[in-house]
């Protein structure tokens, strides 16, 4: 539903690059949960640009303010309004681009859809729109951790042609992910990825990548067939992130090449429950979690705004050369880590609350 | 939301394998549109099992009845109820499986979620649930074709390791797709795919595959940022189809390996509008259609129910060997073609109606 | 949302007078609940026309068929499809009315809205549309009775100028309500009401009335501020019933004439909980149930279709006299009793499931 | 949906009395509409307490800030975030009430529902929650006025036993309504109402009242049967306002006493269209607007918080006397005028956008 997401745990985001602020209303947060700004700020800081040499050098403080829904450090059960002021606005950077729609950017489609567009070009397709998601997701994560022990960890698994190897889902931590700037827990790959990004930047180009995310300790039973299957809701949430082009859960596209006898996950009895010996399915069967790790991958295209000259046409259809000015990320995947985590948390929190409707009184 | 999908063009499906029937309520269909059962039956027949030697040999007539919303061959604007009776039920086929949850099937998760399960095992995860989708999708398609000239065509682009080559999006027709049983318009690949499927069947195994779908003639402007982006809604719809594990739009995961300078689609002026020279984006920018072809791929895992012996455990956790009886598709992708088309049509119809809210009076 | 109602316990109705059938899809019904057609039929029989001399003499059997969602007498947790075939169709009765829109009927507005209208005139404004509601409401009621001990009883409290006296909310039963044809538990008033209705019928006129409904044993805590307050959801549900024009909860409009000191319900301690000494509020404070009886009143206008000659104009704007043919209820309130009960049950069931999201695991 | 309302024109409100601020996210506002803070402030000022001697003397400036969705004085089509800071907080006024739940107030039910409550007692049942509604409603009104010429005017039609006479719906203006403090356009009744309110205040008591609202120039065709009928949506919206207990459209409860022959609105031909000679229906037939004035009444109970001593019990069930401190409105209806107008505008704007889905391209 446009700028709202979720049924019981529901968010409504607002804001674009050059307005007063961006934020979110989070409805359905369980009452009596401890919550303070620091719980949210930690993920906003991970999302923030200018963290290191791999990202744009815009310094956006992105301090969150809790407007409502919390009193004396406890949630009230009422909607939580969150606001982050926009500070570092340089609309002049977009001047030249106002005549030429950026190839593969939302400049043109926003204008086609709304008959107007924000001075920043792509309006809500801006990366700043994701601040509200990350802030809301931090609350969802806290709820899931406290009530279910759920842990959600995303990392960069590919940049360009470089793929991470040997990531152990079971023992991965955010500290391991954040151990390097590229947020890849495979240090060898991380080094190569970093070089790829710096090279792209030096060449005024950009580069794509893939994130993987694992969600541990989900209870069995989450996901609402037919249309709110866990993987459907995750796919929806992930493809709503700017620059995403693909989603796969479990073995995904690779599994489509396999035989059933090789792809199926046989059952065993472990830790007092039916478990699976393998987990090619990615923790979901028939749209419902089976208590194994849920893991999925999200493809991000290379950012559309590049400094390299592009032969294109302007809004009047006249041939034009575009060399984008301003500070632009050569690769979004390191900063996308907390965004993917947030979206996963929002989906799972919603499905967890919905499943409670089947609890006995 | 569970068994409902859509905001303005909205469906609510019902039914599982061994009940009286399956069907759907389709709300929001524009009034004064010609509609007769044959418009719907044609896609149901394409979905039906037992069509050829590649599929299960269950003969399910699957005749649709229009219960409401149509009078004298015209839609009234009121909800259209559609019903397909279940006929060929053989619950005894599932007897042995009632003690052993099928690996990678929904048998166990349905039980975990609902504390009960249908005699057929997976309940709504059954392929029969998709009948309502296909029936509703046929109505959505008719609306899109008449009002916008939109054409939606899906085909099998991979089976196992076999990939189709050289499919021309612009001139593809459903007749070309249906020219062979495997529904791959590349006849060379189709032959190889067919062999793969027959071999898997002979070995009592199953095999996965990939569908590609192209949607032509979409107007610019469809898709509702931030959360109802066109690609997000498509991903959601596709991952809600049983057995799907992945989705990618445009260059998808392959694009994530690229540089921006190589991936971007520069603009040109063509046919009186700004068009793109290439279409690596898959017809969508910032979540909004740009009037180029929308195309995407959907990964289907190999069917979980196989005749081959599987070492697993029963519901009590005791070691067991499962050799599934009954008639099961060795590969679902040929029959999934009309399902993918239907889901695409439902998403696009909904977004098209929503975009009308921005029309002047 | 148009023909759907509810968030977790959700219905989608379909059907009008002269199509194959009317029905409903009920999603969100808790699994493992006993359910058989008779549980539903009992309320459909109370809604059915032709029950007695006060109603239209159309004999509509209105047998419900459970299409899905139930197996071996137990709900599966999947959507329950319900169908009632239309039998007694006499479209010719509407012949003369096809040229003249009935005053205060939906004939004209349906045509204005949809640019087409069903042969029966008002399309979905037909009383037959309520069959799906009553059928779904019977399931909701069963759930509420079994899980919470909730009882919902509506009765006719006014017909024209005649008002019922002395109805004891605490001891009222449906048997007491059904003890007379007019469904008013005050036998003196019932006799007068019955005379009013028969007189109106004899004069080919119609007459309005009011229903009161009491809901007993609601737990405290149901209702979702700000917009899904219990009374807001009830008002919405009641005003969605054909022919309704008003709703009030507790003292309603009469309370608006009072002082706070006279209207407030002071607390006492009773049965181990804080209770109210009086219940002028109607069991709801701030949009949330307080465990006292919820009661409300619903105003029904006199049916618009009357045999008496009406001076009006036809669709071309030419002066015309309309004398409606066919069998029409002179007063809808006796038959509306199960409809009001059903709508109340649907609202409460939905809010009860939503409130479960605040239960600890 | 809890703190969200609407399908296409959709709001999500947040905030309670003693947090940082209250506000709303308004999604679905058509793009390219002129909008500045003054368009919103004008209605907030009418809602503000402390405007005159009839209301509480809290001076709340309630200045609105537009956070997003507007650039250069034009709407972008993206969500509009609106924020009003809380300034005049005196939580100490609520000290004594923290031990004793106020009779007929939400203190207890909020605690029952959420297991916690805000220091102000009723949390979101606070009148401050309505600021977001009024702010959003002002935007909806502007859209409706510019696109359809719709005018929405509410006024106080009753205070206690005093009823306004002779209000001419056709020529009423907001200036006429605001000509006196009580906002009743009948000056004689207004004087009596004012005395009633001042007397109640002097006696530390409160008094109820009724608002009437007329909506002029609605096009025919708004309202979505079966469940989003215009009157159902209006009833829902009105009963979601704090302190409301009743709703009636057209002749409402009075019409329920009438015969059909007296209540029906015959058609005539006027101004080039089919119109009705009378308008007892209140501009709606079968849930759909018929282009006549829509008018309805809303009952407000007397405010629950009064200074007069009330014999009740505290949270432990012990007998207690409550004499509420602080500044409380003796009568809410004058200030409720812009709230009712806002809620009407929000409902109509949503239904108007939805009806556009039936426009031809």
Secondary structure topology:
The structure is a homotetramer of 361-residue chains.
Chain A: E1 4-5, E2 10-14, E3 21-27, H1 37-47, E4 64-66, E5 70-71, E6 74-75, E7 80-85, H2 107-114, H3 130-148, E8 151-159, E9 162-163, H4 174-177, H5 187-202, E10 209-216, H6 230-239, E11 244-249, H7 252-255, H8 260-263, E12 267-270, E13 273-276, E14 284-285, E15 288-289, E16 294-300, E17 310-313, E18 319-322, H9 333-355
Antiparallel strand pairs in A: 1-2, 2-3, 3-7, 4-7, 5-6, 8-9, 8-10, 10-16, 11-16, 12-13, 14-15, 17-18
Helix pairs in contact in A: 1-3, 1-9, 3-9, 6-9
CATH fold title of chain A: Chorismate synthase, AroC fold
Order of helices and strands of chain A: EEEHEEEEHHEEHHEHEHHEEEEEEEH
The radius of gyration of chain A is 21 Å
Tally the structural domains of chain A.
Answer: 1
* Gross geometry of chain A: globular
What percent strand of chain A?
15-25%
* Main interface by residue count: A-B, 112 and 112 residues
Structural class of the secondary structure composition of chain A? Answer: alpha+beta
Which architecture name of chain A does CATH use? Answer: 4-Layer Sandwich
Please work out how many helical segments of chain A DSSP would assign: 9
Mean pLDDT of chain A: 94
CATH homologous superfamily label of chain A? Chorismate synthase AroC
User: How would you classify the quaternary structure?
Assistant: homotetramer
Characterize the main sheet of chain A. Answer: 5 strands, antiparallel
Question: What percentage of residues of chain A falls in helices of 4 or more residues?
Answer: 25-40%
